[in-house]
Write a structure and sequence with these properties.
The chain is globular, with a radius of gyration of 21 Å. The protein starts with 9 loop residues before the first strand and ends with a strand. It is mostly beta strands. The protein has a domain at 11-166: Jelly Rolls (Sandwich), CATH 2.60.120. 8% of the residues lie in helices and 44% in strands. The strands form 4 sheets. It has a 15-stranded antiparallel beta sheet that branches. Strands 3-10 form a two-stranded antiparallel sheet.
């Protein structure tokens, strides 16, 4: 089994972050869980058996409904949900989309079918983090104005919730990658007397509560900080000979996420890399990156794209690009 690889990368773009940048966010009962920052988990308590976290959308529309509910019938994009930095082992998480009106809830849509991505099959097997692929809703609500996570348990600790779309660019036969691990907080300097000193300002990646980031607590009472990952990971990923429809949104389409067919009156989600870049503002908003979605032992990182994406035409309707993907916290 390969320990590290770059195979078919998968990108997870968080929709609440994008809606915030558009000014479509109207607050939350727990705003810290919608910041895509799991490094400072918060304790929550409820006497009702579930802790409820709601992201309120102030400009509901049919277009937002499509963005939140449409599940592409393809293997290159889909919907996902996740909880990072948690202690909710053996507890269920109910994800739902709601139209709330004057205290009433109408057109409730909740997940009824999903596939495990990591550490979630009916409930998390371990404390740490969990991700799952949404494959079916019980219905598709109209004028959605609330994204809700309901987490089982009277007392839970959570770093952040994430809900959005994943993308897997077309696999290129000459995909190239470079992996780096940088301890930027540790500097080495020589003194006047010739001694060499290590000056440690910080070790890097902060913990998610008691556990190092992206750690599953498979053994209780173990000190996972010994040997825990701390350096800042980065990947240089190059894609070559991608067709234009796999890499760009349609130029003349006013809605870059969907193509509308006037004959069938159906909206088809654009699964290209362009949709991922739009949801993350060219990778400037944090997203979850998996360098090889087909690996036996999946690796994840919270990242940003730190170069300016550009695309070179190498043949008729064929393009190449390179992304520098850098871990962030």
């Amino acid at each position: 089994m390969a320990r590290r690889s770059i195979g078919k990368p998968r990108f997870y773009a968080d929709i609440p972050q994008y809606l915030k940048t558009l000014g479509y966010y109207d607050g939350s009962n727990s705003p810290e869980v919608w910041n895509m920052n799991p490094s400072q988990p918060t304790e929550y308590e409820s006497d009702e058996g579930f802790n409820v976290f709601e992201f309120i959308i102030n400009k509901p529309s049919e277009d937002i409904d499509h963005l939140l509910t449409t599940i592409p019938q393809s293997d290159v994009s889909g919907l996902y949900a996740g909880v990072l930095g948690h202690d909710i082992k053996d507890k269920t998480v109910e994800v739902s989309l709601i139209q709330k009106e004057e205290g009433l809830e109408a057109d409730l849509g909740y997940v009824i079918d999903f596939n495990e991505i990591k550490n979630y099959y009916n409930s998390p097997e371990y404390n740490g983090y969990s991700l799952w692929d949404i494959t079916e809703w019980n219905n598709t609500p109209n004028n959605i104005n609330t994204i809700r996570f309901a987490v089982e348990g009277e007392q839970v600790s959570i770093g952040c919730n994430s809900f959005g779309r994943w993308f897997e660019p077309e696999f290129s036969f000459d995909l190239k990658g470079t992996i780096a691990n940088n301890y930027e907080g540790v500097n080495v300097q020589n003194t006047v007397g010739g001694s060499t000193l290590s000056n440690i300002k910080h070790l890097g990646q902060p913990n998610w509560g008691e556990l190092p980031a992206w750690t599953l607590e498979k053994q209780e009472e173990r000190d996972y900080n010994l040997g825990g990952a701390k350096g800042r990971r980065s990947w240089q990923v190059g894609f070559s000979y991608l067709t234009d429809d796999k890499i760009f949104n349609k130029a003349g389409n006013p809605d870059k996420f969907f193509t509308y067919d006037e004959d069938t009156e159906q909206h088809t989600f654009d699964t290209s890399l362009g949709s991922f870049l739009k949801l993350t503002l060219n990778g400037k908003l944090p997203f979850i990156f998996c360098p090889d979605s087909s690996a036996d032992d999946l690796e994840f990182a919270l990242c940003r794209v730190t170069n300016q994406p550009s695309f070179s035409q190498v043949a008729n309707n064929l393009f190449s690009t390179s992304l520098t993907i850098t871990e962030t916290w």
